[in-house]
Here is the input.
Amino acid sequence: MNKNLHSLFIGLVLLTGIHPVGAQTARFFRIVGPTTTTIAAFNTDGTIVWSGANPGATYQVQTASSLAGGTNWVDYVQLPVTNSVNTNLLVSFNPPAGMMLIPAGTFTIGDTLDGESNAIPTNVYVSAFYMDTNLVSLSQWQGVYSYATNDGYSFVKPGKDKAANYPVETVDWYNCVKWSNACSAQAGLTPVYYTDVLFTQVYTNGETDAVYPNWAANGYRLPTEAEWEKASRGGLSGQRFPWGKLITENLANYYGSPGSPTYDLGPSGFNSIGSIGGRSPATSPVGSFAANNYGLYDMAGNVYEWCWDWYGTPYGQPTTNNPTGAGPGSVLRVLRGGYWLSDAYYARCAFRASTYPYLAIWGIGFRCVRGL
Here is the structure.
């Protein structure tokens, strides 16, 4: 990065209100730190372009609704005004607890590095969203599960793993969807999943494929396959894994087989971290390995992750703008990320797995996302 021109990602919250044509709402911003800086521009993807920084130093973004004095403040108003609706760009410095903001943008889903036939590279656009930093842990699961079962929800299995800070397993797709709704209700958010097209009946019981997502709701939900892969790649392109093209057991919890495939540097067999707390299942505590560039842990290995989508090909269905996967007709739901018993091939960002949504077995867990 040019040391005299930096892009600082700060996240977007779009607030829309009705104003007279031409109305403008001002907001003042500045960046403060050990040296003087100047804001050069605001980008629509949620970055501030700024200059005069000392690389490696810590800076803060300050914002105010009225100018309180000082220097280097920038008065910023976003236009245009369309049909008397003025959309003003403000900033959110604090994502929901335990989540990271994944920026909006177009990326290439899939790759041809290893001869995949169901992951042909396709450019898709994904809106900004928040994603859980970690896999849902057993303790997180149990906390919401207790709330949910006391509030009329039902689940096929209670979820298991070795200890509180390990990823929950033995949860089927339906359980994860209902749990997400309960998590939303517990947090005072609007649930995403319903059993009717008018979004009047929150999905709380049974195992049905007639689930209708309200994508505009602010509650917790499973990621779409496109959201998952965008988040997994962490802003990188053309790589096998969230960090690059090679893998070792220092980077993820998977079953090592050095040289087969060639990009696996091992060592061989179960990752020793899986022995902590007992061999079966050989999961590792959430967050045991380095995060990717978006601050997300375990995007490769440990446990597979449920996605919203029905499994189908090709990518980008029914549209390349926020695709939500194949429509009804498939009988399988998408899984991503590999797990502790699979080899490096299955831990790649582009690898697509699938299974029946009613399966609640070892090796499958999940994490949630939220819209902005």
About this structure: The longest strand covers residues 304-310. Residues 5-94 form one domain.
